[in-house]
Specification:
heterodimer, A: 244 residues, mainly alpha, elongated
């Protein structure tokens, strides 16, 4: 139907079904009515723009749906709250240093601090502004033992963020989670999708650092694809020698 | 399409690249208006995005896509006239080995047949477009329209007969012997 899976005999069968010569000849003359060639380039750009709008609208809608009450608070307020909790923690920490045993409330405060930082990071990662999202990636580095929500948010940034700097920062932030299988799989997957040479090179370096053998087929493809940026191809070729 | 259905929207671009030409051709021949056909192609692929979760693996993607195209066209023309009229001089027929006189004659016949096609009943025109230009088998058309292949064969036969009748009504000459050899009965 689309020109690739057509059987040429199918077309010829149709006239054979007609019992009058006149019908066969009408069928033949129909073949002389030319088709109009579409303006493919204009149609594709229009489609890409519509698709981008639709995806952005869906994404905003999705974010609005999953936003929790604390996510509606301004990031600066959350940051201030985090600092306040940190200060309280320090004061209590000093007060309790003399005590021979660990105060359970200290562990509780640490936990609260960690959760607050996590909230701030997640909130920043969902901002419209790329610089805010970059701050969000940076905040994840300050969290001790971050939860799976943070890892998911970073993987989401690596795969879907429109800004190259955010994607690059997310690769750096994900290095500390390289022992997690889902992170390694997602990084290999991202390598197949990224079209920014900067991000591709950063991901290739990441693959070498973690010695990810699953990435070898994609690295081989990148090294051989003449459509790929020359620097990326060279880097991919180098990485194949590094990954044992 | 399965990847698109499962959330990988980056695969929608390759689908557009592969299928926008046949969908445009179908819509252009059905509407007789390339601007409308271009708008409808956009509509079709946005519907693919919107209704991607309804695609079932067991069905042929092309059939599903053409079903969407049919619905998009039907929605567009609901309450409007179905097709645009074309003039006799609007057709550009590829040149051939024929003499100039015969070629001009043939061009006029082709233009007249194109007008006849647009004057044909909508459902019959669709059968001809799908079979002749989209090169679908009776079975594929049957799947698309929800009818048996045998019924497709019968209706297609009737559609070509009706087309020929309209063509002859549009003809100024009593016979058609010079260019095609078809004679009026």
């Amino acid at each position: 139907m689309d020109g690739n899976d057509r059987n040429p005999d199918d077309v010829k069968k149709v006239p054979e079904a007609f019992d009058h010569e006149e019908h066969v000849e009408i069928w033949d003359l129909l073949g002389d009515i030319p088709g109009e060639p579409p303006n493919s380039a204009a149609m594709r750009s229009r489609f890409d723009a519509a698709l981008a709008d639709e995806v952005a609208a869906n994404s905003t809608r999705f974010r609005r749906e999953v936003r929790r009450p604390w996510q509606q608070v301004a990031p600066w307020a959350l940051a201030a709250a985090a600092i306040a909790v940190l200060a309280i923690g320090i004061v209590i920490g000093r007060a309790t240093t003399q005590a021979p045993r660990v105060d359970p409330s200290l562990a509780e405060l640490r936990q609260e601090l960690r959760e607050t930082r996590q909230m701030v990071a997640l909130s920043l990662l969902q901002q419209q502004s790329a610089s805010q999202r970059l701050k969000g990636v940076s905040w994840t580095g300050q969290i001790e033992m971050p939860g799976s929500e943070i890892v998911s948010a970073l993987l989401d940034a690596l795969t879907h963020d429109a800004n190259v700097n955010v994607r690059l920062a997310s690769i750096d932030a994900l290095r500390r989670f390289a022992d997690q299988q889902n992170v390694r799989v997602a990084a290999v997957d991202a390598l197949t999708r990224q079209d920014s040479p900067l991000v591709q090179v950063a991901l290739i370096d990441f693959m070498v650092e973690i010695n990810e053998r699953e990435a070898v087929p994609e690295l081989r493809r990148l090294s051989q694809d003449t459509m790929v940026n020359q620097t990326v191809r060279d880097r991919a070729r180098w990485s194949l020698q590094q990954i044992g | 399409m399965l990847a698109v259905r499962d959330g990988d929207l980056s695969q929608l671009g390759p689908l557009f690249e592969r299928y926008h030409v046949p969908i445009f051709d179908y819509l252009c021949r059905m509407t007789g208006n390339r601007a409308v056909a271009e708008d409808l192609v956009q509509d079709v692929f946005m519907r693919v995005l919107k209704y991607r979760s309804t695609f079932r693996d067991e069905g042929r993607f092309e059939t599903w896509l053409f079903r969407i195209a049919r619905n998009a066209r039907a929605d567009y023309f609901r309450g409007r006239s179905g097709v645009e009229q074309v003039s006799d001089d609007g057709v550009d027929v590829p040149s051939s080995e024929m003499s100039v006189a015969r070629r001009l004659e043939r061009d006029r016949d082709v233009a007249r047949l194109q007008r006849a096609l647009l004057l044909l009943r909508d459902d019959r025109r669709e059968l001809i477009v799908l079979a002749r230009y989209r090169e679908m088998t009776h079975e594929q058309i049957g799947n698309l329209l929800g009818i048996e292949p045998g019924a497709v064969k019968v209706r297609l036969h009737r559609a070509v007969k009706d087309l020929r009748d309209i063509f002859l009504q549009l003809s100024e000459r009593p016979s058609w012997t010079v260019t095609t050899g078809i004679r009026t009965t």
